[in-house]
From TrEMBL:
GO molecular function: methyltransferase activity
Superkingdom: Bacteria
Record keyword Transferase present: yes
Sorted UniProt keywords: Methyltransferase, Transferase
UniProt GO BP: methylation
Name used for this protein in its record: Methyltransferase domain-containing protein
InterPro entries: Methyltransf_25, SAM-dependent_MTases_sf
Residue span, Methyltransferase domain: 59-125
Length: 207
């Protein structure tokens, strides 16, 4: 069964429309995606924790939304979690969870270098995909990361069917930017018919 707000973000065009779609969805987001069997944040957090000793290691939850990914990171053992997102209203919900050290809105034109360069562990669950950020964000994130930093992220089935998204990991590996540490396809939104899976990756920035 589909979901009208979920369908809306998958068809949004441009940063302004995307921000508005997520702002409008913020109050019902958790209920809607949990009811659709949203498991990707847990898969991303557990994959990242397999390659980064969590403990006191600071982690950036990029595109943290309402904080479901922050909950997953905390459950995986991360204690110092920072988050950024495009939607202020989604962040309002995340703040209520009281699991983040710092939260702030990221602007589309904002440089990533200062924000990501200080982290050795970065998570981006459900962020680089149709219905969220364009594939170019992946390359921007890699160039902002420090050598040896790890990025755990996902590509949903709709994105994997689009060559602009599907080839980004292979292209970055072929270019010598990353080493692919982990790649596993599994459930994403288990109850959402045409977008039921995602591939979770962990890549290490080479330098």
């Amino acid at each position: 069964m589909g979901n009208s707000k979920l369908d809306k973000v998958y068809t949004a065009s441009g940063d302004a429309e995307m921000r508005q779609a997520y702002d409008n969805w913020a109050a019902e987001y958790d209920r809607d995606v949990v009811s659709q069997g949203y498991i990707t944040p847990t898969r991303v957090a557990e994959a990242l924790a397999s390659f980064v000793s969590p403990g006191g290691q600071p982690v950036m939850d990029y595109g943290c939304g309402t904080g479901l990914s922050g909950i997953a990171l905390k459950q995986a053992g991360f204690e110092q979690i920072d988050g950024v997102d495009l939607s202020e209203k989604m962040l309002d919900v995340a703040r209520e969870r009281d699991i983040y050290r710092n939260l702030h809105v990221v602007e589309p034109e904002e440089s990533l270098s200062d924000g990501l360069g200080k982290y050795e562990a970065i998570a981006a669950a459900g962020v680089i995909s149709k219905g969220a950020a364009p594939p170019s964000l992946y390359t921007e994130m890699l160039h902002a990361m420090q050598p040896k930093a790890k990025l755990a992220f996902s590509l949903n089935d709709l994105s994997l069917a689009d060559p602009e998204y599907a080839d980004i990991v292979k292209d970055s590996k072929d270019a010598g930017l990353v080493d692919v540490l982990f790649e596993e396809h599994g459930p994403h939104l288990a109850e959402y018919g045409h977008n039921s899976g995602s591939t979770v990756y962990v890549v290490e920035r080479l330098g």
